[in-house]
């Protein structure tokens, strides 16, 4: 089968996040299974117009915004009729493929942006896309949809999408590459491992830390994901200074491999205080190393974190509740170890090869290729 994916970024984009991990891990698994896969995406400074990564062909055109209208022209002149199915990956701005693509279309909707707009833009500006977003998605209502979590499915159903056209395929992790040392840090360690972006609220963890340290003084925090030196990243680092947390908080850029694995296993708890997620890959990555999580009770996270089983969920934006949940886990060794064991067992059900096959089967069922 020949699969064309449209997504705003590819795995090498400096601003790539969890969505790009989902796209690339599936795409390369499909290539390994004998299929042809291409990604049509935006270019970035230093990026090449054509590149092959893990067998996946990457076409880069336009920029952050121009990619959407340039994709129409590029598809019509270069790609139309060459693929059996088109996967439209929607991150904030849709490609509107049902309006011009001739092949069968399946959309991958990571999440509605909704309240995230208000954490990124001034209120008077944010209200416009907030109100328009449900209308933009109407283009996809007659087409099959893949989502990452039950709570995203429920939002789509609430927006008028047919339940029988929505398929859930959670992201995976490479279980075969997880090698645990069965070691935790000697002192309480909290880890945030995600992009440093305003709607994910790493600064909420910093605001909670003084409250935590009043009860558990030797608690330390590691925050990873600094890489673009954007204004919000500067705000987070400034807050560390303002709260006099320089001795308690360590920051890193993007980390992977052995360093990431050791950090996730050393942690006593992983924290993701995001106001919205499609799923929360870092939650399952932490779980794979036997580390439970605390997060807000919001779309996506209420699926990846099983409340009072693999961690705790608290009301979004409630710093006191966030601190209390973390303190409870740090202080109660028996409870924490129970959560850790449950998290480890839960993570074992999310293997990338299995998830990629599930996703592929959905595409094959709608493909123009006979099967």
If you had to describe this structure to a student in words, what would you say it looks like?
The chain is of the alpha/beta class and 371 residues long. The chain has 2 domains: 2-172 and 351-366, Rossmann fold (3-Layer(aba) Sandwich); 175-347, Rossmann fold (3-Layer(aba) Sandwich). The protein is 39% helix and 17% strand. The chain contains 13 helices and 14 strands. It has helices at residues 18-32, 66-79, 116-120, 123-136, 150-158, 202-213, 231-242, 257-266, 281-288, 301-304, 319-331, 333-347, 352-366, and strands at residues 2-6, 36-41, 50-53, 56-60, 85-90, 105-109, 145-147, 166-168, 189-193, 220-224, 249-251, 269-272, 293-296, 311-314. It has an 8-stranded mixed β-sheet, sandwiched between helices. The protein has a 6-stranded parallel β-sheet with strand order 11-10-9-12-13-14, sandwiched between helices. Helix 1 packs across helix 13 (352-366), helix 6 crosses helix 11 (319-331) and helix 9 (281-288) packs across helix 12. The radius of gyration is 21 Å and the shape is globular. The model has no long low-confidence stretch (mean pLDDT 93).
Question: Which labels suit this protein?
Answer:
371 residues, globular, Rossmann fold, alpha/beta, 2 domains, 8-stranded mixed sheet
CA-CA gap between termini:
10 Å
CATH topology of the largest domain: Rossmann fold
Kindly report the average pLDDT value. Answer: 93
What's the domain count? 2
Q: Give unreliable regions as ranges.
A: none
Beta-strand proportion: 15-25%
Bulk shape: globular
Number of helices: 13
H/E element sequence: EHEEEHEEHHEHEEHEHEHEHEHEHHH
CATH class of the largest domain: Alpha Beta
Q: Can you count the beta strands?
A: 14
Largest sheet: 8 strands, mixed
Strands across the major sheet, in which order? 3-4-2-1-5-6-7-8
Global structural class: alpha/beta
| DSSP helix fraction | 25-40%
CATH 4th-level superfamily of the largest domain: Glycogen Phosphorylase B
- What is the C-alpha radius of gyration, as a whole number of Å? 21 Å
Named CATH architecture of the largest domain: 3-Layer(aba) Sandwich
């Amino acid at each position: 089968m020949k699969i064309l994916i449209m997504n705003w970024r590819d795995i090498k984009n400096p601003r790539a996040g969890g969505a790009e991990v989902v796209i690339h891990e599936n795409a390369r698994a499909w290539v390994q299974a004998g299929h042809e896969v291409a990604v049509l995406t935006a270019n970035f400074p230093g990026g090449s117009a054509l590149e092959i990564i893990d067998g996946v062909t990457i076409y880069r055109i336009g920029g952050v915004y121009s990619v959407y209208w340039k994709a129409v022209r590029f598809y019509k002149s270069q790609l139309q009729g060459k693929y059996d199915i088109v996967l439209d990956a929607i991150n904030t701005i849709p490609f509107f493929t049902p309006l011009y693509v001739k092949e069968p279309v399946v959309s991958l909707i990571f999440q509605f942006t909704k309240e995230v707009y208000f954490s990124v833009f001034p209120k008077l500006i944010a209200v416009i896309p907030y109100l328009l977003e449900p209308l933009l998605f109407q283009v996809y209502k007659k087409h099959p949809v893949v989502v990452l979590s039950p709570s995203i499915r429920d939002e789509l159903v609430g927006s008028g999408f047919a339940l029988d056209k929505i398929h859930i395929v959670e992201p995976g992790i490479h279980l075969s590459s997880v090698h645990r040392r069965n070691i935790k840090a000697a002192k309480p360690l909290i880890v945030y491992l995600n992009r440093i972006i305003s709607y994910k609220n790493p600064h909420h963890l910093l605001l909670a830390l003084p409250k935590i340290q009043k009860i558990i003084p030797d608690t330390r925090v590691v925050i990873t994901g600094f890489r673009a030196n954007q204004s919000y990243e500067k705000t987070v680092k400034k807050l560390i200074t303002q709260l006099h947390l320089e001795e308690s908080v360590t920051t890193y850029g993007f980390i992977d491999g052995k360093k990431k694995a050791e950090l996730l296993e050393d942690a006593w708890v992983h924290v993701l205080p995001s106001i919205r997620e499609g799923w929360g890959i870092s939650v399952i990555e932490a779980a794979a190393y036997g580390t439970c999580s605390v997060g807000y009770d919001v779309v996506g996270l209420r699926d990846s974190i099983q409340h009072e089983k693999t961690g705790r969920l608290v009301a979004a934006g409630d710093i006191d509740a966030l601190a209390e949940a973390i303190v409870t886990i740090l202080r109660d060794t028996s409870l924490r170890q129970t959560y850790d064991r449950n998290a480890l067992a839960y993570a074992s059900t999310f293997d990338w090869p299995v998830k990629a096959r599930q996703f592929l089967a959905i595409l094959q069922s709608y493909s123009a290729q006979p099967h």
